[in-house]
Amino acid sequence: MAKEVKFFRLVQETAFRHIQVSYNSIVKHIDRREKIKLESIDIYRLLYPYISNKFREQLIAVIPLVIYLALFQIIFLRQTIENALTITFGIIAVIVGLMFFMEGLLKGLMPFGELLGNKLPQKSRLPTLMLITFLLGVGVTYAEPAIGALKTAGSIVDVRKATYLFLMLNQYGDILPVAVGIGVGIAAVIGTLRFLKGWSLKSLIYITLVPTIGLTLITVFNEQLKSTIGLAWDCGAVTTGPVTVPLVLALGIGIASSGGKGESSLSGFGIVTLASLFPIIAVLAFANIIYYTSPIDINNISELLKTGGNTETSLIDKTPYAEILLGIRATVPLILFLLIVLKFILKEKLRNPIYITYGIVLLIIGMIIFNIGLSYGLSNLGNQSGGLVPAAFAKLESVEKSPLYSYSLGIVIALLFAFCLGFGATLAEPALNSLGYTVENLTNGVFKKSMLMYSVSFGVGIGIMLGILKITFDIPLHYLLLPFYLIGLILTVLSTEEYVNVAWDSAGVTTGPVTVPLVLAMGLGFGNSLSVTEGFGILSLASICPIISVLSMGLLIKFIVSRRHISENISKKTPEKGVA
Amino acid sequence: MNHMRQMIILKDISLITCIVQKGVADDIVKAAMEVGAQGATIYYARGMGVRERLGIVGVAVDVEKEVLNIVVANEQVDLVFEKMFLAGKLDTPGMGFMYVTPLLKAATYIPQEILEKISENCGE
């Protein structure tokens, strides 16, 4: 009896038509080649979660940073946000642009990367492989969303104070990404060779740092080129973003696993490190080449540039067109290159060409929207709050009653602001989360995921703080960078190969497409309102500090573990378990 | 008192298996638990079939899937099955697939007080 009532209630509650059909009869009527007809409600149900999830992903990455900057400006600096409407639209464009771009990357470019990685090593010889790897390195750099920030940054630099820096960012603004790209290309080639031959990253780091620091020293002693050091070292951080890392890695790992020696648990690491060191060499070399091949009379050129610059901006540099041009120029060469390789070298056909086309269209649209958002939202906001922070301790014309706090308190507030910005932004970076998982697996759980995340974030926070300190007191960047890299080197000598791989890669992984433009613009705004020569260098400090913090954390863990093992061995007198 | 370890064997149970796109499983589990399911096991898989026939809208269908396993009592199975179907919007093409398998027996930890209640009912 009771059962009957229950079933009745069940039917009543759901009020839902049940039709029983034999699967036998359905199979007879299904044609796999036929398209399924979709009704509008079906399309809505399919698309809504797809779009809203992607949107939320980017929203979470962008909004906390923006709110932090805005609240800091309102509460601590007591300033309203200028052009709030433009910035809001810009930020929305950044979110939508990133959403399109990342989805396009996943659907449009990654299948290429995987196909290339799997098939290319079987079909071509090592020299061809290396050439393709190199060209891919150049192409992905161009397609990196954060690279557009360099161009925006160029407009903030003052010609008279840093002529060569201005030249490189404006007159040679189109060549600069090529120089960076060549650096990444060489890094990709060496990184892939490393996979193949099983070279240790430690020795590669030593070898790479020699020309990097050598060129820096040469540049330091050149009064006119001095200002380009910050830019060069920052370029290293700009390059390793969401396009470069997966695409170059896919190819590198593919080549390595076909070469036989790619089975180490460390394969995959190292390319990021090299890709953030080689661009420094490339950009420094580029600066020196400009200096020696076409020396410029500073007094004349600054006037010339002003007039020349103005006529140029009026034509194609109108808002949407400039960004559309930039977006197409950034992505199309890479896509064409990949297609050519696929057609003429691999002679393969793509599976699901509709989805790939869809992905590529999204990629280009995303890049364009992101670029618009970059100049109106991120750069604008970063520049503004960067420019206002010094009001905490210095007298600024734009801010009433500045300095707002006593000198020492104001500096402390500015430094804390910088630290929290770096710490928070890094902790929220999704790439760091996945790196954390890898590291926890790699070290058999000794190096916890959260431990890595906190030490990297702490490092970045300290780095950005030091960057602000550098700009505030106009400390030459090499005074900070060289000792830090020296410490980094000493720690590298002391650490084991695994930790070296993780630590040097962690820096590059963490600087995403939102953080880079924001921090870059903030530094430049900060520098401008204190009227120092240039505001570059923050990113480079934010790269070396996590290396130091992760390496020291690794050494500390090693020390604790070995102490524990010793005491266990003494007390139990049993052989310790083999830990790979 | 009771030093002997015992295993309680459950009868009259079914397994509901549901394959959906990655990220959807949690909502379905929630719906199933609201109508009496005790828990769920989720694992990851890759699937194909319908996506290719949806045309351009197919981009919205994730190739990566989540497979849910929920064990329910035979009395609950129809209700839970229906709720899961609705929560997963499985009446939309490309959203997923689900089925029920009869189980021979199952065993797990059963709280002592529940066993006592059962034996009281049987005693009456």
Mean pLDDT of chain A: 80
Number of domains of chain B: 1
Tally the helices of chain A: 22
**How would you describe the oligomerization state of the chains in this entry?**
heterodimer
**Integer-rounded radius of gyration of chain B:** 18 Å
Principal-axis shape of chain A: globular
Which two chains touch over the largest interface? Answer: A-B, 27 and 24 residues
Highest-level CATH class of chain B: Alpha Beta
Rg of chain A (CA only): 27 Å
Tally of DSSP helical segments of chain B: 3
The number of distinct β-strands of chain B equals: 6
Shape of chain B: elongated
Order of helices and strands of chain B: EEHEEHEEH
- Structural class by helix and strand composition of chain A: mainly alpha
Notes on the protein architecture:
The complex is a heterodimer of chains A (580) and B (124). By secondary structure, chain A is mainly alpha-helical. Chain A has one domain. Helices cover 76% and strands 0% of the residues of chain A. Chain A contains 22 helices and no strands. Chain A has helices at 2-14, 23-29, 40-75, 84-123, 126-143, 148-154, 163-169, 176-197, 201-220, 228-239, 244-259, 271-293, 298-315, 319-346, 353-388, 407-427, 430-442, 449-472, 477-494, 497-509, 515-529, 538-572. In chain A, helix 9 packs antiparallel against helix 19 and helix 17 crosses helix 18. Residues 307-316 and 574-580 of chain A have low confidence and may be disordered. Chain B is built from three helices and six strands; from the N terminus they run E-E-H-E-E-H-E-E-H. Chain B is elongated. In chain B, the strands form two sheets. A four-stranded antiparallel β-sheet of chain B has the order 3-4-2-5, with helices on one face. Chain B has a single domain, classed as 2-Layer Sandwich (Alpha-Beta Plaits), CATH 3.30.70.120. Chain B has helices spanning 25-34, 77-87, 112-123; strands at residues 9-10, 13-21, 41-46, 64-73, 96-102, 106-107. The A-B interface holds A 3, 6, 10, 13-14, 16, 32, 34-36, 38, 41-43, 45-47, 49-51, 53, 107, 352, 354-355, 358-359 and B 23-24, 50, 52-61, 75, 78-79, 82-83, 86, 89, 92-95.
